[in-house]
From TrEMBL:
Compartments where located: Membrane
Domain of life the protein comes from: Eukaryota
Lineage: Eukaryota, Fungi, Dikarya, Ascomycota, Saccharomycotina
Cofactor note: Binds 2 Zn(2+) ions. Binds 1 Mg(2+) ion.
Protein's name according to its UniProt entry: Alkaline phosphatase
EC number(s) on file: 3.1.3.1
Any GO BP: phosphate-containing compound metabolic process
Length: 513
């Protein structure tokens, strides 16, 4: 039931009347709620304040269907028998292409969601003609909703940027940071930002908030933000003082790393929060701030680095990122199920990355039907982490370091050839090391990758809604196979937003440096 034209919100369903669909819809809704209630002891409330709505929109950057099969096997191989819960909420699937290519990048992918508009690769909140397009987040803010962005990469990276800025090319991150703090025609539209990417908020000579940033103009946007009334949080101590969001003042700017927050696999709880902690802090702060309002909030939550693990072809790091996302999503479901406010959760990916698959032929003989999640379980750190350590080890200590710290302790690989070892010894760049390590792990696990880039396969769409009517709206719009822009159209429809009006308001926004 694909829509062949990509703007239609409702697919035509051959053979089923709308009445039949409605009956099916109610049955499916009941089934999902029953599953949730039975499996997770969640009791949705019936009484919901009229008209007030929250939307939490999740993007699993670069996560395709194979990521879930891989992560499920990885999780179930552990003694604790962790379950992946996200798949329980599957609503349908989605086509990801952009206007310029059958394979999208994250900028066009996110703009399809934020502006409900198909655009060219690298475009951030601008249409195919390069003109700024009004976003869901901006329109929601203008309608009185509170808004937030939560990511594990740079806040100025493509996905959050496409909701909160307008630039011709995703590389213009200095300008994106300015837009996010509200220097363009609408004023400030973001109430809360939690993630990495501090580097684009200050200059290279400036060490007030970090080791030196990368803004070309050297301006300190953090000082400016504080002057303008933002609460700034720059480390874990400050993050803890937010008391899970209940002691936050909005607008809140939490820049918790210069670039990325480390992979969940490498993350130190004392130094960086998990995606779930970031998200719950945002949800609690936005809930408190909208307590007396007749509007709720719109929050974007991105599992940003699933994509990075896939670009690096690191299956162990990706499985851990997916599990961290799964935990965050379930906490949001639990929040929504208990909330008195009508709340809808939508989760999807902008595209698949890596051409990941579980099962790979590793020799000339016809392959056995197996792959080995235990190889992934044996890794204690990502290849990225290990490569950054190894690159700084002096030449005469390298061989021992590789044997003990990288292969045996880091990756849990106890059988490797002299050739493997020598290839690592002579690798001089982190990229070369990283590539060799991820090839060793993937080969042993019999995990396949077709690319270090993105692919054009369809991705899954997941949803949860805490009332019958909201559940029905989600289902009417998103059941089955859809185009990525249909997600944006649904968000606009559900929050009753006029994106064209915003597009008109922002037409003079400066969208290149
Ligand atoms: C609440 O936030 C304020 C301002 O950052 C801080 O001074 C105070 O210590 C925080 N309270 C707690 C209990 O962390
Ligand atoms: C995992 O590590 C253990 C030692 O810690 C080793 O005995 C085992 O062979 C490793 N498994 C795989 C699949 O590499
Ligand atoms: Zn990517």
């Amino acid at each position: 039931m694909a829509t062949d034209e990509h703007t239609g919100l409702l697919p035509r369903v051959g053979g089923r009347s709308s009445k039949q669909r409605a009956v099916w819809g109610s049955l499916v809704a009941l089934l999902v709620l029953a599953t949730v209630v039975l499996r997770f002891d969640i009791v949705p409330r019936r009484a919901v304040a009229g008209g007030k709505r929250n939307v939490i929109f999740f993007v699993t950057d670069g996560m395709g269907p194979a990521s879930l099969a891989m992560t499920r096997a990885y999780a179930q191989a552990q003694e604790t028998d962790t379950q992946l819960r996200l798949p329980t909420f599957q609503m349908g699937s989605m086509q990801t292409r952009s206007s310029s290519s059958l394979i999208t990048d994250s900028a066009a992918g996110a703009t399809a969601f934020s502006c409900a508009m198909r655009t060219y690769n690298s475009a951030v909140g601008v249409g195919p003609d390069g003109r700024p397009c009004g976003t869901i987040l901006e329109a929601a803010k203008l309608q009185g909703y509170m808004t937030g962005l939560v990511v594990t990469t740079r806040l100025t990276d493509a996905t959050p940027a496409a909701f909160s800025s307008h630039v011709d090319h995703r590389w213009y991150e200095d300008l994106i940071a300015e837009h996010q703090l509200g220097t363009y025609p609408l004023g400030r539209v973001v109430d809360l930002m939690i993630g990495g990417g501090r580097t684009h908020f200050y200059g290279s000579q400036d060490t007030k908030y970090g080791d030196g940033g990368s803004r070309k103009d050297g301006r300190n946007l953090i000082d400016k933000a504080v002057e303008d009334g933002w609460q700034y949080v720059g480390d874990m101590e400050g993050f803890k003082r937010l008391q899970g969001g209940h002691n936050a003042s909005l607008p809140l700017l939490a820049l918790l790393a210069d670039y990325d927050i480390p992979f969940d696999m490498d993350r130190d709880d004392a130094v960086h929060p998990s995606l779930e902690q970031e998200m719950m802090t945002a949800i609690n702060a936005l809930t408190d701030a909208t307590k007396d309002s007749d509007r709720g909030f719109f929050l974007l939550v991105e599992g940003s680095r699933i994509d990075h693990a896939a670009h690096q072809n690191d299956p162990a790091a990706q499985a851990k990122e997916v599990l961290a996302f799964d935990r965050a999503f379930m906490s949001a479901v639990e929040f929504a199920a208990k909330s008195d406010v009508e709340t809808v959760l939508i989760s999807t990916s902008d595209h698949e990355t890596g051409g990941l698959t579980v099962g790979r032929q590793v020799g000339t003989a016809y392959p056995d039907y197996v792959w080995y999640p235990d190889v992934l379980r044996n890794a204690t750190h990502s290849a990225e982490y290990l490569a950054h350590k190894l690159v700084n080890v002096p030449a005469n200590e390298r061989e021992d370091y590789i044997r003990e710290k990288v292969l045996e302790k880091g990756l849990g690989i106890d059988y490797y050839s002299e050739e493997d070892l020598q290839e690592l010894v002579v690798s001089r760049t982190t990229d070369q090391i990283l590539d060799k390590l991820t090839r060793m792990v993937s080969l042993r696990a019999e995990i396949g990758w077709s690319t270090h880039g993105h692919t054009g396969v369809d991705v899954n769409v997941y949803a949860f809604a805490n009332t019958g009517p909201s559940w029905k709206s989600v289902q009417d719009a998103l059941y089955g196979n859809h185009a990525n822009v249909d997600i944006g159209s649904f968000l606009a429809l559900y929050l009753d937003l006029d994106l064209e009006k915003v597009t008109d308001l922002i037409k003079d926004t400066k969208h290149s440096p």
